[in-house]
Design goal:
The chain has a 31-stranded mixed sheet that branches. The chain is built from five helices and 46 strands. InterPro entries: Beta-barrel_TonB_sf, CarboxyPept-like_regulatory, OMP_b-brl_3, Plug_dom_sf.
């Protein structure tokens, strides 16, 4: 299989090489074109009529005189220059256009054999006066927009983003549900891939939450919700992709912003401060982002369990309080792009972040053989610390070879992730039925783990006349994971290693992938895209403690198909199909025990299998703003957390296993509308049917539910240019694996005011103002057994944010950067 896939990758690279060679011959900008396509040239320079400075990346169209159809097109370079070569004799018009400027046309330029070289001289474009201020005052940016293949949640500039973290904004997105462990679901389905700027994050649920909680939502442009990705995307992510796009520099000169915020959740004080500086001059476009914070949070919870044994029933009641604080030096992200010419650029992005997390989890547990009659009381106090470090690097190239959209991009990535954690567990056992002294059991764990990730990819797009397009790509990645979890009895001066709960786990994984897609226009009303992706996975997991080795080597094909039908100007339908998978993350494959309290453990599973999903979707879009989306997914070998009850010891072990299958049918409606002139709303309704089938103690358990979520976002312009945002969400009852989730709802408010010509923004936030976002879950664990959770994660808080923006420049075309890594989502446990 390995040889077959390497052969496929070789063929792809050969195809790319031959195509690039053809481009060098066909590119109208190349010197060879001048002698093959015509005798003449038309060139000139485009400048700002007010400042006299060159205008770069403006659109220049060449037309036959008297015609409205462009015969060729180009962009101005960093000096405002443009040139058309190989121009046949004739009379031509040239049209210049750029955001923020009036369009201008120069007519009747004549190319003849006697005058083959035409130079226009400086062409002056006049800036559009007062084009932005009136728009900002009179209109409201839509919070949610629907495109043909994705839903986009706009975050930039909203009051709800001020003072919030990326994690909080993600949790408020339509159809997104995050459970008590930080696992993300989309429309009731697990297996969601998280990307930053089209690049996967390589993090476990815990580490991803650490990263997103340390990232200010102020730096987010939008979130893309892609429920049915094409073959171009990694097959990872059986329920779809959530892509967080960060703000990019689109202004000349130096510009940036500074921000500071304070937040209080009723028990803890948190703050954040940060800034970004962007500098664009000539061929360089560079940026530097800093974000420092003290993030705080916690939970109040009750856990109720009933263990039905053969001879007696044990009742377990627990009250818990958890707190966390995480802070560290500023998270740094910097990068630059260099324009080799007006068609090609190279650059790099690097980021470094480290933080120190302190948590405590304090529980009072009562155990007895009759309800409300405990015989044993356990006071368990858990204290943990963790140093998390993420070092990411990316080198990239982007080239655009013609005006039709022929492009080539390449990326090299290296990521280093380190976790250095330790925990102390202090357990006190007090027998309520006797006068025996309190017994003590002290435990200690050390859990360092490291990940090294290497990836390389190349993507090529060739556009043809008539709306046809070919896309090819290849990718290879390697992941090396080292997790050395040590568990100690700490009742004496010298800790004693517990071999049963200690495990050193090494995991290596190689993934080789290639894809091809073809897009074509079928008449005036139909567009079709078909694609096929191949991914070969080779992995080896080794427990150094037990000597257990698990090896995998498998090749999978992932087809995709999309059909767009434009019924009329106000109505279009999109049909889609794709096959995807979800691999176990690296921590889930580690068979070690993770300790929570004397009666609660979590355990990995080296025998986990990937889950596979068939997804079918139909999206109807009305008047380009209203949409109705129907999705069906069938998933086999669903990776889920399952509780196992040991009635004899009153112990619950949560382990990761494969459920047989799940089915999901969902309907999503998006309806933005204006209540009045200064009051816009975006409304989303998701109705879904989820069904899980799982074997528990050799008995088939079916868990199904019709669920629904209603979300309404309101943007209101008040007098004195105050902007009010209101977000209301209701989630009906839901199911996941063996769990049943009770309904919950919440309301968030944001009030924003700008000063000093919109350079200073002041925002006040109030989240979950009714303290109703409580998570109540029950597990189906067999007849007579109970495993219930009731938790509140301190979502109610108030905050104040100040943001100052300095220096504004002209908008210019954003360069396309295609980063799409897959391995980060699966590190850790």
């Amino acid at each position: 299989m390995k040889k077959s896939l390497l052969f496929l990758l070789g063929q792809l690279c050969l195809c790319l090489s031959l195509t690039l060679a053809g481009l060098a011959q066909d590119n109208p900008q190349s010197p060879a074109s001048e002698t093959t396509k015509g005798i003449g040239t038309i060139s000139g320079e485009l400048v700002d009529s007010f400042t006299g400075k060159p205008i770069e990346y403006a659109t220049v169209a060449l037309l036959q005189s008297g015609s409205t159809q462009a015969t060729s097109g180009t962009l101005t370079d960093s000096g405002g220059r443009f040139a058309f070569t190989g121009v046949a004799p004739g009379n031509y018009d040239i049209t210049f256009s750029f955001i923020g400027y009036d369009t201008k046309t120069i007519r009747q330029l004549s190319v003849t054999a006697g005058n083959p070289k035409v130079v226009t001289g400086p062409v002056m474009l006049r800036p559009v006066s007062t084009q932005l201020k009136e728009v900002n005052v009179q209109t409201l940016r839509p919070t949610i927009t629907q495109e043909a293949d994705r839903m986009i949640v706009n975050v930039e500039g909203t009051a709800m983003a001020a003072g919030s973290t990326a994690y909080e904004v993600l949790a408020k997105s339509p159809g997104v549900f995050i459970d008590q462990e930080g696992n993300i679901q989309l429309n009731g389905r697990a297996g969601v891939t998280i990307m930053l700027d089209g690049k996967l994050t390589y993090l476990s649920a815990r580490d991803l939450r650490n990263l997103l909680e340390g990232m200010a939502a102020e730096n987010i442009k939008n979130i893309e919700i892609i429920t049915n990705p094409s073959a171009k995307y990694d097959a990872e992510g059986s329920s779809g992709i959530l892509n967080i796009n960060l703000k990019k520099n689109t202004q000349q000169g130096m510009n940036g912003s500074l921000n500071a915020s304070y937040r209080y959740n009723g028990k803890q004080h948190g703050y954040s401060a940060g800034g970004n500086i962007n500098y664009k001059s000539g061929k360089w476009n560079s940026f530097l982002n800093l974000d420092a914070a003290r993030r705080v949070g916690g939970r109040e919870a009750t856990f109720t369990r009933v263990f039905k044994g053969e001879t007696e029933t044990v009742y377990f009641d627990q009250v818990a309080t958890g707190n966390y604080e995480v802070e560290g030096p500023p998270f740094v992200r910097l990068g630059t792009d260099y324009s080799l010419n007006d068609r090609q650029s190279i650059g790099f992005t690097t980021s470094y972040g480290t933080n120190f997390l302190e948590t405590d989890f304090l529980t009072d547990t009562y155990i007895g053989t009759a309800p409300n009659q405990p015989a044993l009381y356990i006071d368990a106090n858990n204290y943990s610390t963790n140093r998390f470090t993420n070092f990411s690097n990316n080198l990239h190239y982007a080239g655009k070879f013609d005006t039709l959209g022929t492009t080539l991009t390449a990326d090299l990535d290296y990521v280093k992730i380190m976790n250095d954690g330790e925990s102390n567990f202090y357990n006190y056992f007090d027998s309520l039925a006797t006068d025996d002294p309190v017994a003590k059991d002290f435990l200690y764990t050390s859990t360092p783990n490291n990940f090294d990730i290497y990836a390389a990819k190349i993507d090529f797009t060739k556009a043809f006349a008539g709306g046809n397009k070919l896309e090819l790509g290849a990718k290879a990645s390697r992941v090396i994971s080292d997790n050395d979890s040590r568990f100690f009895f700490n009742n004496s001066e010298v800790p004693v290693l517990d071999l049963r709960r200690t495990n050193h786990f090494i995991y290596d994984e190689n993934i080789y992938a290639g894809y091809i897609t073809w897009s074509s226009k079928l008449g005036e009303k139909f567009n079709v895209q078909a694609g096929l992706r191949a991914e070969q996975t080779q992995s080896r997991g080794e427990s150094r403690t037990t000597g257990q080795v698990t090896e995998r080597d498998y090749l999978n094909l992932f087809p995709s198909f999309f059909l767009n039908q434009k019924v009329n100007e106000n109505y279009e339908i999109n049909y889609s199909y794709s096959r995807r998978l979800q691999r176990p993350n690296y921590g889930q494959l580690n068979p070690f025990f993770s300790y929570r309290d004397p009666y609660t453990y979590w355990q990995g599973n080296p025998y986990l299998r990937p889950q596979y999903t068939h997804a079918v979707g139909i999206t109807q879009i009305f008047k380009k703003n209203y949409s109705l989306i129907l999705n069906y997914q069938l998933t086999e070998d669903v990776i889920v957390e399952l509780p196992a009850i040991e009635a004899e010891t009153s112990t619950t072990i949560y382990y990761i296993g494969n459920a047989d299958k799940s089915k999901n049918l969902s309907v999503t409606g998006v309806a933005p509308f204006k209540i009045m002139k200064n009051w816009d709303t975006n409304n989303t309704v998701v109705a879904s049917y989820n069904k899980y089938s799982t074997m528990v103690n050799k008995v088939q358990v079916v868990n199904d539910q019709v669920s629904y979520t209603i979300q309404s976002n309101h943007n209101i312009l008040l007098p004195k240019e105050l902007r009010l945002e209101v977000n209301g969400t209701y989630q009906g009852p839901a199911v996941y694996a063996l769990y049943v989730v009770e309904p919950r709802w919440w309301v968030n408010l944001g009030l924003k005011k700008s000063f000093f010509d919109e350079k200073l923004d002041v925002t006040i936030n109030a989240n979950d103002i009714f303290k109703s976002q409580r998570l109540i879950i029950a597990a189906l664990v067999g007849e007579g057994n109970v495993n219930d959770f009731n938790q509140y994660f301190r979502n109610r808080n108030v905050g104040l944010t100040l943001r100052y923006n300095f220096s504004r420049g002209q908008k210019l075309e954003e360069r396309r950067r295609n980063n799409n890594l897959d391995e980060l989502n699966r590190t850790g446990g």
